[in-house]
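Is 2-acetamido-2-deoxy-beta-D-glucopyranose placement plausible here? Inputs below.
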Amino acid sequence: MAYPSRNYSYPTRSSSRSSIHYLILLAFAAVLVFKVDVLISQSIFAARRRASTSRNFVRPTYRRASRYINSITGFTNGTFNRNFVLSWGEERGKILEHGELLTLSLDRKSGSGFESKKEYLFAKIDMQIKLVPGNSAGTVTTYYLSSEGSAHDEIDFEFLGNSTGNPYTLHTNVFSQGKGDREQQFFLWFDPTEDFHTYSILWNPKCIILSVDGKPIREFKNMESIGVPYLKGQPMRIYSSLWNADEWATQHGLVKTDWSLAPFTASYRNFSAEACIWSPRTRKSSCESTDSAKSNSWLTEELDSRAREKMKQLQQKYMVYNYCEDPWRFPQGPGPECGSKSKINRQSNSNNNINTNANNNDNIIVPRKPRRPRRRSRSKRANKVAQID
Ligand SMILES: *[C@@H]1O[C@H](CO)[C@@H](O)[C@H](O)[C@H]1NC(C)=O
Ligand SMILES: *[C@@H]1O[C@H](CO)[C@@H](O)[C@H](O)[C@H]1NC(C)=O
Ligand SMILES: *[C@@H]1O[C@H](CO)[C@@H](O)[C@H](O)[C@H]1NC(C)=O
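Reply from A.M.:
I modeled the complex. Tokens:
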């Protein structure tokens, strides 16, 4: 707002004519400032009201507020500008098409990444991703939620590239309070490089559901009652990166990246979120106020028995690794969240031709960390993990 600046030189008493001019000018400025103020507060109020009556309150809040800003400044900022920052890789990450398309690229020197501006404590997020096409061997595209600190929470989608004609591996994991080792891997039922597909994370106090094109592929229920820590106390940010890991990623590191094909590019569009936005200042989430809780039906959403049955059928067909069925890695048995039925599942899986052979550790490629350079505040953890590896 254009208030008179501090070093404005006041007119001298001797010149009464110029002081009258000055007074008129001042009165005019005051009226102008007042009017603009009213206009802005009305618009912001209207935007808030519309946002609070809408189910999807991340998008409209930003969109409507920024549309107003655009109309005075001519500035257009789309979904990606509003919600994310390109966090590493310099010009390798790009926000295009008025902020509605984001691309990450990888060359011999570096990969790239982005992260959400906000932190969330529970969210339902959808992102459409089109992965690196052709020979993507050695490349890893990550899309995940993570908190900070040593006992962090994390929900992962990671796409391990492959040589031409061979399938990508969709790797998933859930960390709660620093404990991971909960890998499940899938082949997809489509070519994820040909077009955009939607990868979704529902994270609420009851469960975490990972979905592909609206089809749940993995569920991690809140099982605190049987002693499994749940992700509910640490706000998380959304991260994504494209980077090179050809020392292990593709067919256990046997297939290297063909740098003559660089740069490799992955694309993102149509991000949408319903989320409880964490305020670091008040240490509260936006869902803690009672009026927003009503409209957030996703906060109690979970799989019903039919949806769970469908998910199991899908897993039988497309899951290629399940930590719950890996006595080689976990000789003392899987975590309690796996339930007692995991052995039975293994038997019924055994006539599936892409099924894991659980006695053989060759089937799992466990992504190593760090998967990306972190922001400065996070680099300590990344370094520590790198040393452990
Ligand atoms: C537009 O996006 C850029 C980059 O993310 C940001 O710096 C700027 O403040 C945004 N402008 C508006 C009007 O939202
Ligand atoms: C790549 O393709 C091979 C052959 O189909 C498969 O065994 C492997 O799991 C695929 N994925 C990765 C990441 O190596
Ligand atoms: C964008 O995402 C929304 C919500 O996830 C979905 O309903 C819509 O069909 C998507 N648009 C496109 C062009 O795929």
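Short version: Residues 86-388 form a domain with the Jelly Rolls fold (CATH 2.60.120.200).
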